[in-house]
Design goal:
This protein is an alpha/beta fold and 201 residues long. Helix content is 34%, strand content 25%. It contains 5 helices and 11 strands. It binds D-malate. Residues 21-22, 60, 63-64, 102-103, 106, 128, 154 line the site of D-malate (MLT).
C-alpha cells in the first residue's frame, strides 16, 4: 500500500497509524500525529480504492452504505500490510494506535471488529459502524477515543453511539466526545484526543 513511514525518537515506542478520509491522502493527518505524539513512529497509509478519483479504504455502494465484501477484503489487506511494515521498519506490531478520520476511522473500526490484536488503541474521528450483526473479539485492554459532531450529516449521532456501545460490549475502554459541529475536524477535538492519548499511552 502507498504510505509514508517516519521513525520516531522512541524507536521501540508507539506507532501512529494514520488513515485519511475520502478523497484524502497519506499526508493529510501528519500535522495531527505531530500534535498527538511528536515522538511516535508514524505510518500513514493511502487507501487502495478509488471512487471517482478519490482515494478510500474500501468501496461503498452509496453514501453511508458499505460494500461489505470489499470492506472485509480491505480490512485483511490493511492488517497484512501492518505486519509487513512492522517487519520492514522494525516497529512493535503490538503497539499501533490508529488515528482515522471518517472513511479512515471506519476501516480502523473494522480492524478492531475483525482482528483482535491489530490495534492497541484508536482515535476514531467521525466514525460510523463498519458492520452489523457480527460478534466482536474480546477487546479488553484496547483503548478507543471517538469524537463525533452533533450536526454531522455524514456520520449521524446514532452511529457514534452504536459504535461506542458495540466496543463497550466487547470490553474496550471507550470515551465518546461530542463537538457541536458537523463533519469537519475541530481544533478542540484534536486537543481532547491528545489529552486522552497521554493518559493511555
Ligand atoms: C464512508 O464511506 O466511510 C463514510 O460515509 C464516510 C465518508 O464519507 O468517507
Amino acid at each position: 500500500m502507498k504510505h509514508i513511514f517516519k521513525k520516531g525518537t522512541k524507536a521501540d515506542g508507539t506507532t501512529l497509524l494514520l488513515l485519511h478520509g475520502t478523497g484524502g491522502t497519506e499526508t493529510d493527518l501528519l500535522p495531527i500525529a505531530e500534535m498527538i505524539d511528536p515522538e511516535a513512529n508514524v505510518l500513514s497509509v493511502r487507501g487502495n480504492v478509488l471512487e471517482n478519483g478519490m482515494p478510500r479504504f474500501f468501496r461503498r455502494l452509496e453514501e453511508g452504505v458499505f460494500d461489505e465484501e470489499d470492506l472485509l477484503l480491505r480490512t485483511d489487506e490493511l492488517n497484512d500490510f501492518l505486519i509487513e511494515a512492522s517487519e520492514k521498519y522494525g516497529f512493535d506490531r503490538n503497539l499501533i494506535v490508529a488515528i482515522g478520520y471518517s472513511n479512515g476511522a471506519n476501516i480502523a473500526a473494522s480492524l478492531l471488529f475483525h482482528h483482535r490484536y491489530a490495534l492497541k488503541g484508536a482515535i476514531l474521528l467521525h466514525p460510523m459502524v463498519p458492520r452489523r450483526g457480527v460478534e466482536l473479539p474480546d477487546l479488553t485492554g484496547t483503548a478507543v477515543f471517538i469524537s463525533a459532531g452533533t450536526n454531522d450529516p455524514i456520520c449521524p449521532k446514532s452511529e457514534a453511539r452504536e459504535l461506542r456501545d458495540l466496543l463497550d460490549g466487547a470490553h474496550a475502554s471507550v470515551q465518546l466526545q461530542w463537538e457541536d459541529y458537523g463533519h469537519q475536524l475541530t481544533q478542540s477535538e484534536i486537543m481532547l484526543a491528545g489529552q486522552w492519548y497521554k493518559t493511555h499511552f
